[in-house]
Write a structure and sequence with these properties.
162 residues; alpha+beta; five-stranded mixed sheet; four-stranded antiparallel sheet; 24% helix; globular
Length: 162
C-alpha cells in the first residue's frame, strides 16, 4: 500500500541527529553527514590556518582537517575536546572536535527547522573564513542545529557514550 502524497513519510517527519556538547552548546548534527565518532588521534598543526582549524590527522589512511567546534562557535580555547565526529562534506571528510557525544535522537522536522543553525552562534568573521576555506564544510555546519534546554530535556536519546 502506498502512502498518499499528502501524508509525510516517517523520513520526512523526523530527522535523526547526533547530539554533541560543544562548550556551552548542545548541537544536533544530521546523521546523514556523520560517518563515525572516535577518540582524538595524532594531530599535525597546519601553518596559516585560522585558530578553529586544529590541524590535520590521518584517519584510515586519509589526511583529514580537524575543526574545533568550540573555537569556531564561541572562541572557547580551554575546553578539552574528548571526541571527534568524522563527517561527510560533499565527497570529503572533516573531523569535528567536540567535548562529548551525548547520543542519537530523532527530531521532528518542523521543530528542527525552527531551531537556530549552529553557524548562527559563530561570529561572522569565522563563518566567512570557513566559507573561504571550504564551502562544503559550511554546508555541513549550516545543517547542524543548536538545541535549547527546553527541547533537549524531552528527547529520548539512544546510544549515549560514557
Amino acid at each position: 500500500m502506498q502512502a498518499r502524497a499528502s501524508e509525510p513519510s516517517v523520513a520526512q517527519a523526523h530527522q535523526n541527529a547526533l547530539l554533541c556538547h560543544v562548550g556551552s552548546f548542545v548541537c544536533g548534527l544530521p546523521l546523514l553527514h556523520v560517518i563515525e565518532t572516535m577518540r582524538p588521534l595524532a594531530l599535525s598543526p597546519f601553518e596559516g590556518m585560522p585558530p578553529f582549524v586544529s590541524g590535520l590527522s590521518v584517519i584510515r589512511g586519509v589526511p583529514v582537517p580537524v575543526v574545533d567546534l568550540g573555537r569556531l562557535l564561541a572562541n572557547e580555547r580551554s575546553a578539552k575536546r574528548e571526541r571527534w565526529v568524522l563527517a561527510r562534506a560533499e565527497g570529503r571528510q572533516v573531523a569535528l572536535a567536540v567535548e562529548r557525544v551525548i547520543g542519537l535522537c530523532s527530531l521532528p522536522a518542523p521543530a528542527l527547522s525552527a531551531l537556530p543553525s549552529l553557524l548562527g552562534e559563530a561570529s561572522a568573521e569565522f563563518v566567512s573564513r570557513v566559507g573561504s576555506l571550504d564551502a562544503r564544510l559550511l554546508i555541513v555546519l549550516e545543517s547542524a542545529r543548536v538545541l535549547p534546554e527546553s527541547i533537549r530535556g524531552g528527547l529520548p536519546i539512544g546510544g549515549a557514550e560514557a
